[in-house]
Amino acid sequence: MKKTALDIIEMKNKGKKITMLTAYDYVLGSILDEAGTDMLLVGDTMGMVVHGHSTTLPVTLEDSIRHTQAVARGVKSAMVIGDLPFGTFQVSAEEAVRNAIKLVKYGNAETIKLEGGSERIPAIKGILDAGIPVMGHLGLTPQSVHRFGGFKIQGRTEETAKFILEESKNLEEAGIFSLVLEAIPWKVAKMITESLSIPTIGIGAGPYCDGQVLVTYDMLGYFDFKAKFVKRYLNLKEQILKAIQEYNREVREGIFPDTSYSYE
Ligand code: KIV
User: Fold this and answer.
1) For site-directed labelling of 10, which of 93, 222, 223, 225 has its Cα 20 to 30 A away?
2) Closest Cα to atom 8, ligand 1: which residue?
């Protein structure tokens, strides 16, 4: 059965940890789903790990729709979350609602995520009014990389920690069903998690969040860059390199294909 926003909230109430990973294509999406992951985010990190940009800023709504469609086709039970890219929800609440609807209507997302605090409340309320559950995202919000002066940990001072806590409460009051907390000190994430009745999903925010998310390419070791908070569960790049080198050698030496891989 498909997981819904209500199921995710219920998991916090029952003290069950929530798992979330990013997915950008049909095959990986279906594997993450088969492995029992609760939520799949078709994140705008696709701009970096799939399309090779240095930030998430160039990702378009069309990119997001296309990749969300592909992931949604492979998923039976995980919730599919579409990510609103930079420039698709900041200009006005109406534009945000229109773009969130497109992500659901054409991309087959079941919920959407958007970055930012109180300044996004009109957009969040409009999207909720359209019947779409919204996931928030605070802390290091990568779409604001230029304002932060780089991908820097947030909430390290008492003042900024308090600000993120207040903003978490504001977003909860606006009606989001869960909140991503990215790259903040674990004590701040713990305080926020204990203050909210909706689940927090941490990435680089320590062990006390209600759930965790990682960029799948990072945790599989498919992507070279590794942040401190990433645990590598596999060295996929090394394994792929080995396999491709072997294929290249076998083709060059006439080992592959032999007749067993050929038609009579
Ligand atoms: O776009 C993304 O993949 C994200 C996660 C890192 C939370 O926002």
Assistant:
1) 93
2) 43
Ligand 1 atom 5: residue of nearest CA: 43
Query: What DSSP string runs through 1-63?
Result: ----HHHHHHHHHTT--EEEEE--SHHHHHHHHHTT-SEEEE-TTHHHHTT--SSSTT--HHH
Q: State the distance from the centre of ligand 1 to the C-alpha of 213, rounded, in angstroms.
A: 8
Ligand 1 centre to CA of 197 (Å) is 22
Angle of CA points 122, 127, 131, to nearest 5°: 140
Return the domain boundaries, the chain. 5-233, 236-264
Spell out a b/e string for 1-29, using b for 16 or more CB atoms within 10 Å of the CB, else e: eebebeebbebbeeeeebbbbbbbebebb
Q: Measuring from each residue's beta carbon to the nearest atom of ligand 1, which residues come in under 6 Å?
A: 22, 41, 43-45, 83, 180, 203, 213, 215
Its pTM stands at 0.97
Rounded distance, CA 178 to CA 198, Å? 5
**What tens digit of pLDDT does each residue of 7-54 get?**
999 999 999 999 999 999 999 999 999 999 999 999 999 999 999 999
